[in-house]
Description:
The chain is mainly β. It has helices spanning 186-197, 212-219, and strands spanning 15-26, 37-38, 42-47, 50-51, 54-59, 62-68, 71-72, 74-79, 93-96, 99-101, 109-119, 123-138, 157-163, 166-168, 171-174, 176-180. Strands 1, 2, 3, 8, 11, 12, 13 and 16 form an eight-stranded antiparallel β-sheet that branches. It has a two-stranded antiparallel ribbon with strand order 4-7. Strands 5-6 form a two-stranded antiparallel sheet.
Amino acid sequence: MGNKINWDKTGEKIYETGVDHGVLYVRNALGAYPKGVAWNGLTGVTESPSGAESTPLYADNIKYLNLQSAESFGATVTAYTYPDEFGACDGSAEPTPGVKLGQQARSSFGLCYRTAKGNDVKGQDFGYLLHLIYGATTAPSEKAYGTINESPDAIEFSWAISTTPEAVVGYKPTASLTVDSTKVAPEDLAALELILYGSDVATPVEGRLPLPAEVITLLTPAGG
Protein backbone atom coordinates (compact mmCIF):
# COMPACT_ATOMS: atom_id res chain seq x y z
CA MET A 1 0.00 0.00 0.00
CA GLY A 2 1.36 3.45 -0.94
CA ASN A 3 2.41 6.16 1.44
CA LYS A 4 0.78 9.04 -0.42
CA ILE A 5 -1.09 11.47 1.78
CA ASN A 6 -4.84 11.61 1.06
CA TRP A 7 -7.30 14.19 2.33
CA ASP A 8 -10.97 13.94 3.31
CA LYS A 9 -11.26 10.17 3.03
CA THR A 10 -14.65 8.67 3.87
CA GLY A 11 -15.03 8.31 7.64
CA GLU A 12 -12.11 10.62 8.41
CA LYS A 13 -13.97 13.94 8.36
CA ILE A 14 -14.07 14.40 12.13
CA TYR A 15 -15.70 17.18 14.14
CA GLU A 16 -16.78 17.92 17.73
CA THR A 17 -20.04 19.48 18.85
CA GLY A 18 -22.33 19.96 21.82
CA VAL A 19 -21.90 19.56 25.57
CA ASP A 20 -23.91 17.37 27.94
CA HIS A 21 -23.71 14.93 30.87
CA GLY A 22 -22.24 17.55 33.20
CA VAL A 23 -21.27 16.26 36.66
CA LEU A 24 -19.96 18.23 39.66
CA TYR A 25 -17.66 16.69 42.27
CA VAL A 26 -16.93 18.84 45.34
CA ARG A 27 -13.42 18.10 46.61
CA ASN A 28 -13.09 16.89 50.20
CA ALA A 29 -10.39 17.60 52.80
CA LEU A 30 -8.45 14.51 51.71
CA GLY A 31 -8.10 15.76 48.13
CA ALA A 32 -10.58 13.25 46.68
CA TYR A 33 -13.64 14.01 44.57
CA PRO A 34 -16.49 11.89 45.96
CA LYS A 35 -20.24 11.95 45.41
CA GLY A 36 -20.82 13.38 41.96
CA VAL A 37 -24.08 15.23 41.30
CA ALA A 38 -25.72 15.98 37.96
CA TRP A 39 -25.26 19.48 36.57
CA ASN A 40 -28.49 20.15 34.70
CA GLY A 41 -28.86 23.14 32.40
CA LEU A 42 -25.22 23.19 31.32
CA THR A 43 -24.97 25.32 28.15
CA GLY A 44 -21.25 25.61 27.50
CA VAL A 45 -17.69 25.06 28.68
CA THR A 46 -15.00 27.22 27.09
CA GLU A 47 -11.57 25.76 27.83
CA SER A 48 -8.88 28.45 28.07
CA PRO A 49 -5.34 27.14 28.53
CA SER A 50 -2.74 29.83 29.18
CA GLY A 51 1.01 30.15 29.68
CA ALA A 52 3.62 28.22 27.65
CA GLU A 53 4.95 31.59 26.51
CA SER A 54 8.43 31.74 25.04
CA THR A 55 11.19 33.89 26.53
CA PRO A 56 14.16 34.06 24.14
CA LEU A 57 17.69 34.13 25.56
CA TYR A 58 20.65 35.44 23.59
CA ALA A 59 24.37 34.69 23.85
CA ASP A 60 27.34 35.15 21.55
CA ASN A 61 25.25 37.56 19.49
CA ILE A 62 22.78 34.83 18.52
CA LYS A 63 19.54 33.40 19.82
CA TYR A 64 20.75 30.87 22.38
CA LEU A 65 17.48 29.15 23.37
CA ASN A 66 13.81 29.65 24.20
CA LEU A 67 12.47 29.16 27.72
CA GLN A 68 8.77 28.40 28.03
CA SER A 69 6.66 29.47 31.01
CA ALA A 70 4.49 26.96 32.85
CA GLU A 71 1.13 26.17 31.28
CA SER A 72 -2.10 26.46 33.25
CA PHE A 73 -5.69 25.45 32.53
CA GLY A 74 -8.73 27.67 32.92
CA ALA A 75 -12.30 27.57 31.66
CA THR A 76 -15.58 29.45 31.58
CA VAL A 77 -18.73 27.49 32.45
CA THR A 78 -22.18 28.73 31.45
CA ALA A 79 -25.49 27.27 32.58
CA TYR A 80 -29.13 28.09 33.20
CA THR A 81 -28.97 26.50 36.63
CA TYR A 82 -26.53 24.70 38.91
CA PRO A 83 -26.61 22.01 41.61
CA ASP A 84 -27.18 23.06 45.22
CA GLU A 85 -23.81 21.55 46.02
CA PHE A 86 -22.14 24.15 43.79
CA GLY A 87 -23.02 26.83 46.35
CA ALA A 88 -19.99 25.85 48.45
CA CYS A 89 -17.83 26.32 45.33
CA ASP A 90 -19.41 29.66 44.47
CA GLY A 91 -18.82 31.31 47.85
CA SER A 92 -22.14 30.73 49.58
CA ALA A 93 -23.24 28.84 52.68
CA GLU A 94 -26.70 27.70 53.78
CA PRO A 95 -27.04 28.02 57.58
CA THR A 96 -30.66 26.90 57.37
CA PRO A 97 -32.68 25.52 54.43
CA GLY A 98 -33.61 28.27 51.99
CA VAL A 99 -31.22 30.87 53.42
CA LYS A 100 -27.87 31.51 51.71
CA LEU A 101 -24.98 33.67 52.84
CA GLY A 102 -22.63 35.12 50.25
CA GLN A 103 -18.92 35.97 50.40
CA GLN A 104 -18.01 32.67 52.09
CA ALA A 105 -15.00 30.38 51.57
CA ARG A 106 -14.90 28.73 48.14
CA SER A 107 -14.45 24.95 47.92
CA SER A 108 -12.37 23.31 45.21
CA PHE A 109 -14.15 20.94 42.85
CA GLY A 110 -13.88 18.72 39.79
CA LEU A 111 -16.00 18.56 36.66
CA CYS A 112 -16.89 15.97 34.08
CA TYR A 113 -18.73 16.73 30.85
CA ARG A 114 -19.14 15.14 27.46
CA THR A 115 -18.88 16.44 23.90
CA ALA A 116 -20.00 14.61 20.77
CA LYS A 117 -17.41 13.42 18.25
CA GLY A 118 -18.92 13.09 14.79
CA ASN A 119 -17.79 12.09 11.33
CA ASP A 120 -19.17 12.13 7.80
CA VAL A 121 -20.54 8.58 8.01
CA LYS A 122 -22.19 8.24 11.43
CA GLY A 123 -22.71 11.91 12.24
CA GLN A 124 -22.89 12.63 15.97
CA ASP A 125 -23.30 8.90 16.71
CA PHE A 126 -19.64 8.25 15.86
CA GLY A 127 -18.50 8.71 19.47
CA TYR A 128 -17.85 11.22 22.22
CA LEU A 129 -15.14 12.74 24.39
CA LEU A 130 -15.21 12.70 28.17
CA HIS A 131 -13.60 15.81 29.65
CA LEU A 132 -12.37 15.62 33.25
CA ILE A 133 -11.27 18.77 35.11
CA TYR A 134 -9.46 18.75 38.46
CA GLY A 135 -8.59 21.26 41.19
CA ALA A 136 -11.04 23.90 39.96
CA THR A 137 -12.03 27.07 41.81
CA THR A 138 -14.31 29.92 40.75
CA ALA A 139 -13.94 33.67 40.98
CA PRO A 140 -16.91 35.87 41.98
CA SER A 141 -19.16 36.16 38.95
CA GLU A 142 -21.69 38.68 37.70
CA LYS A 143 -25.39 37.81 37.78
CA ALA A 144 -27.55 40.13 35.70
CA TYR A 145 -31.27 40.22 36.50
CA GLY A 146 -33.72 42.06 34.23
CA THR A 147 -37.43 42.65 33.94
CA ILE A 148 -39.67 40.18 32.13
CA ASN A 149 -40.85 41.66 28.83
CA GLU A 150 -42.36 40.64 25.49
CA SER A 151 -39.19 38.68 24.68
CA PRO A 152 -38.65 36.56 27.81
CA ASP A 153 -35.39 34.72 28.27
CA ALA A 154 -33.86 32.64 31.04
CA ILE A 155 -30.85 34.04 32.90
CA GLU A 156 -27.63 32.33 31.84
CA PHE A 157 -25.07 32.18 34.63
CA SER A 158 -21.33 32.24 33.95
CA TRP A 159 -18.31 31.31 36.04
CA ALA A 160 -14.61 31.82 35.33
CA ILE A 161 -12.64 28.82 36.55
CA SER A 162 -8.96 28.47 37.42
CA THR A 163 -7.27 25.20 38.36
CA THR A 164 -4.51 23.62 40.40
CA PRO A 165 -3.15 20.52 38.61
CA GLU A 166 -2.95 17.00 40.05
CA ALA A 167 0.29 15.01 40.08
CA VAL A 168 0.75 12.29 37.44
CA VAL A 169 3.75 9.96 37.72
CA GLY A 170 5.96 10.19 34.64
CA TYR A 171 4.24 13.34 33.37
CA LYS A 172 3.83 16.96 34.35
CA PRO A 173 0.91 17.67 36.72
CA THR A 174 -2.37 18.21 34.91
CA ALA A 175 -5.78 19.75 35.59
CA SER A 176 -7.48 18.37 32.49
CA LEU A 177 -7.87 14.92 30.96
CA THR A 178 -9.80 13.82 27.88
CA VAL A 179 -11.01 10.30 27.05
CA ASP A 180 -11.94 9.45 23.44
CA SER A 181 -14.66 6.80 23.25
CA THR A 182 -13.56 5.82 19.73
CA LYS A 183 -10.05 4.90 20.86
CA VAL A 184 -10.45 3.05 24.16
CA ALA A 185 -11.85 -0.43 24.76
CA PRO A 186 -15.64 -0.36 25.27
CA GLU A 187 -15.45 -2.45 28.44
CA ASP A 188 -12.82 -0.13 29.94
CA LEU A 189 -14.89 2.92 29.02
CA ALA A 190 -17.93 1.34 30.68
CA ALA A 191 -15.88 0.72 33.84
CA LEU A 192 -14.78 4.36 33.88
CA GLU A 193 -18.32 5.64 33.38
CA LEU A 194 -19.51 3.42 36.24
CA ILE A 195 -17.00 5.22 38.46
CA LEU A 196 -17.94 8.67 37.13
CA TYR A 197 -21.72 8.29 37.13
CA GLY A 198 -22.39 5.61 39.75
CA SER A 199 -25.02 2.90 39.50
CA ASP A 200 -28.44 1.99 40.94
CA VAL A 201 -28.37 -1.71 40.05
CA ALA A 202 -27.61 -4.40 42.63
CA THR A 203 -25.46 -2.56 45.20
CA PRO A 204 -25.86 1.21 44.60
CA VAL A 205 -22.59 3.04 43.93
CA GLU A 206 -22.12 6.81 44.13
CA GLY A 207 -20.29 8.47 41.28
CA ARG A 208 -16.85 9.95 41.96
CA LEU A 209 -14.09 11.61 39.96
CA PRO A 210 -11.01 9.34 39.78
CA LEU A 211 -7.61 11.01 39.77
CA PRO A 212 -5.64 11.02 36.49
CA ALA A 213 -3.36 8.15 37.55
CA GLU A 214 -6.37 5.89 38.20
CA VAL A 215 -7.93 6.78 34.84
CA ILE A 216 -4.69 6.02 33.00
CA THR A 217 -4.31 2.67 34.77
CA LEU A 218 -7.92 1.71 34.08
CA LEU A 219 -7.75 2.54 30.37
CA THR A 220 -4.27 1.13 29.63
CA PRO A 221 -4.60 -2.19 27.76
CA ALA A 222 -3.08 -5.25 29.43
CA GLY A 223 0.57 -5.41 28.48
CA GLY A 224 0.37 -1.83 27.15
